[in-house]
Amino acid sequence: MCRGVQHPLRGLFLRHYLLQCSKNVLPDIPDNEETEHPEGTVRDSIDFILMNFAEMNKLWVRMQHQGHSREKERREKEREELKILVGTNLVRLSHLDSITLDKYRKVVLPGILEQIVSCRDAIAQEYLMECIIQVFPDEFHLYTLNVFLKSCCELQPSVNVKTIVILMINRLTIFTFHNSNASEVKLFEVLTEQIANIIQSRDLPLEDTVSLQAAMVGLALKCYPENLDYVDKSLQTISDTFAKRKIEKISHKNPVSRELMALMKLPIDNYNDLLLVMKLKHFPEIIEYFDYT
Questions:
Q1: d(Cα 53, Cα 179) in Å, to the nearest integer?
Q2: What pLDDT digit, counting tens, does each position of 51-83 carry?
Q3: Radius of gyration of the chain measured on its C-alpha atoms
Q4: 239 phi and psi, to 5 degrees?
Q5: Are 8 and 78 within 8 A, CB to CB?
Q6: Interatomic CA distance for residues 226 and 47, integer angstroms
Q7: Could you tell me which of 133, 136, 5 has the C-alpha nearest to residue 58?
Q8: How far apart (Å, rounded) are the C-alpha atoms in residues 231 and 243?
């Protein structure tokens, strides 16, 4: 019946109803090759929800192309109001207790990201990437960070990737701060490499680049307070970016100036020691870019 309904709005609500009706009967039993489970395993639930998610997302995206072009704003508003229906699939996946890190890394995340990237719709991509960050455990994000951030390079140009990446950085900053086991993952190095790839592939506005590095400085100060090199690495990235773009001075009215000022205050407020701040080799370089006239 669900396959037969092709009207986007009706199909969306019908598949959401199907998901709601099935939530108490979806098997949540770990896979075990040595034992048969006639009632199914968590893999069956994953396959069902991923299929339903893909179909609902297609219907949701199709709504954008219904009607006259003059009604584009109205359709976008309708889609914003209905996005939670599609996101419920990801919430349902996150509630399956038998999904292990390995299962998430090999099956769940690739299935979700494939659908997000292939739909080529900015509204869907931005919402669903943020939804992944919000609903799945931080531990899963930590060990699949490379895959997630690489997919950010493939999103539509109009997607606000900065917001997505900063949301992920902030989540992992809190998680790493409270979990000593997280130190086995070289979080700062992974983020530095992948953010550099994102900046290069998407040609981000200068203020977005500064915002991303501000989030990295926040991560370094909170999780690696003894490592001045991490803070200096982010400052160097900004300095190199300014030099590459032949920036000489930044007006105080410029959005870049506001973001840069917020970044520069982070080590000052955190260390509360000017001598320690001045040990950051690239700190004076960036100060020189401010135009005080």
A1: 32
A2: 999 999 999 999 876 666 666 778 788 888 999
A3: 22
A4: -60, -45
A5: no
A6: 45
A7: 5
A8: 19
